Amino acid sequence: MAETSIGESAQLRAALVDTLRDKGMVTSALVEAAIRAVPRHWFMPAGTPTEVAYGYDSSVVTKRDQDGMAISSVSAAYIQARMLELAELRPGMTVLEVGSGGLNAAYLAEVVGPEGRVVSIDIDPEIIDLASTALDATGYSSRVRVLVADAEHGVPDEGPFDAIIVTVGAWDIAPAWLDQLASDGVLVLPLIMNGVTRTIGFRRDGDHLASTSAEVAGFVPMQGAGRHADQVLELADTTGGKVKLAFDSGAPPDLIQLNGVLDADAAEFWSGVTVSHGISFADLHLWLAWYLDGFGRLAADEGSALAARKRWLPFAVVRGAGLACLVLRDAMQGAGAEFGARAYGRDGQVAAAALIEQIQAWDRAGRHTPPTFAYWPAGGDRSQIRADATVMNKTHGVVTISWPTSS
Ligand SMILES: C[S@@+](CC[C@H](N)C(=O)[O-])C[C@H]1O[C@@H](n2cnc3c(N)ncnc32)[C@H](O)[C@@H]1O
User: Fold this and answer.
1) How confident is the model at residue 9 (pLDDT cuts 50, 70, 90)?
2) Where are the domains of the chain?
3) Does 79 sit in the ligand 1 pocket, CB within 6 Å?
4) Would the CB of 321 count as within 6 Å of ligand 1?
5) Distance between CA atoms of residues 301 and 243, nearest Å
6) pLDDT reported for residue 303
7) How far is CA 152 from each of CA 66, 144, 176, 230, 250, rounded to the nearest angstrom?
8) Ligand 1 centroid vs 389 CA: distance in angstroms?
9) What residues contact residue 279 under an 8 Å CB cut-off, 6+ apart?
């Protein structure tokens, strides 16, 4: 627990609720009351400053793996609030939270009230211990059932659930979640689609799920049976710094051709597509993940030449012996930026052309209206998939995306 005075934490909590309402993350009286009621700072790791505990968008890491990667965290307030709203909860409901920590479970207990039921599971016994301790200290332990379980298998003895809220990055929808979701239930999950995540609220629509809304938010990765491993290619650059290129699935063939691709100077190409400062273009990343063959995510060491050249975004495309990454330059008389492609290697210009083509396609057909998603479990009737939808294969079904402007 963070050390803080009651007055200070109450003030910060009230300010947080105001911000969440102003930004449209809290829209219902039930969720607002829950966030007002729960002492958020009690669920934070020791030493967390109270302002951070009550920050609008600060997530706080609670555990890292041996490589230093975050594997558990207290999610940021705005995304917790948004997920609670997406779940369309009412008093008396039974809810499953996948990925525990205590805080969100306490919010859920407030929302569903004494007639409701909250089950919160985590694969990591240490996290369940921490969650139990904090729930005990704040008086919620009798209102939340915490269990160690791998979410992939669900918790068959505890359902059916009116809502399932998954708070860990999911590459697919486990069949157990659909088996344990009530027929009119809501599933909220951060779904990873070719490396880009959207937290999506889904409702059943016949034998598939249809999205109700989606948010941009990242989560720690799923462990256990539902874990998905990216294919990662490590490229050395001229400074000896390392650049990693991660492919979610379907990595391009013959990646060996990329050896030495970062050795030569890069050329830049520009799309003519601009964005004003302060306007989100997160849907461009989603568009590229869905429509750009050879799409991968880039990560560069601090000291690498790629990182030293500023204004690049961590998305790239591969063509043969070439690589192009998404870059920005000033535009609109300083009021915005233009998207472009920085090309490396023998086929870099081909890769850049493919990237520019999709930036321009997004500008024409994708940027003005958010997409909708659907999930079609394996074995169901897929004849109803809309003709204008694009399909992405998963292990247990397919996800589709439709951009209203392209229909
Ligand atoms: C972002 S944290 C949960 C945050 C929490 N719900 C909150 O609001 O503060 C994600 C958690 O998911 C857990 N997790 C990862 N894979 C899991 C799995 N297969 N089954 C259950 N829990 C899992 C991790 O151990 C981690 O504690």
Assistant:
1) confident
2) 6-226, 231-365
3) no
4) no
5) 6
6) 75
7) 23, 21, 7, 19, 23
8) 31
9) 336
Segment 91-120, tens digit of pLDDT: 999 999 999 999 999 999 999 999 999 999
Closest CA to 217 of 99, 125, 350: 99
pLDDT digits (tens, 9 = 90+) for 54-86: 999 999 999 999 989 999 999 999 999 999 999
Question: Could you tell me if the CB of 99 is within 6 A of ligand 1?
Answer: yes
Q: Is 199 in the pocket of ligand 1 (CB under 6 A)?
A: no
User: Does residue 4 have a pLDDT over 70?
Assistant: no
Which numbered atom of ligand 1 lies nearest the CA of 152? 19
Q: Specify the CATH number of the domain 6-226.
A: 3.40.50.150
Any idea which of 92-106, 172-186, 381-395 has the lowest mean pLDDT?
Answer: 381-395
Residue 74, ligand 1, Cβ within 6 A: yes
185 pLDDT exceeds 50? yes
CA of 150 to the centre of ligand 1 (A): 10
SS (H, E, C) 181-228: EEEEEEEEEEEEECCEEEEEEEEEECCEEEEEEEEECCCCECCHHHCC
Residues whose CB falls within 8 Å of the CB of residue 364, separated by 6 or more in sequence, listed in order:
none
307 in Cβ contact with 300 (< 8 Å) = yes
DSSP for 224-267, written as a single string: GGG--PPEEEEEE-TTS-EEEEEESSSPPS-GGGGTTTTSSPPE
With the most atoms of ligand 1 within 8 angstroms of its CB, the residue from 122, 150, 228 to mutate is 122
Ligand 1 mean position to 267 CA, how many Å? 42
Tell how far the Cα of 181 is from the centroid of ligand 1, in angstroms. 19
Atom 14 of ligand 1, nearest CA residue: 99
Tokens 């240490």: give the residue.
126
Ligand 1 contacts CB of residue 287 (under 6 A): no
Closest ligand 1 atom, residue 120 Cα: 6
Torsion sign across C-alpha atoms 248, 253, 254, 259: negative
Q: Is the CB of 134 under 6 A from ligand 1?
A: no
Rounded distance between C-alpha atoms, residue 344 and residue 321, angstroms: 9
Main-chain phi, psi angles of 334, to 5 degrees: 85, -5
Mean pLDDT of 152-156: 95
Say if residue 160 is preceded by a cis peptide, omega within 30 of 0. Answer: yes
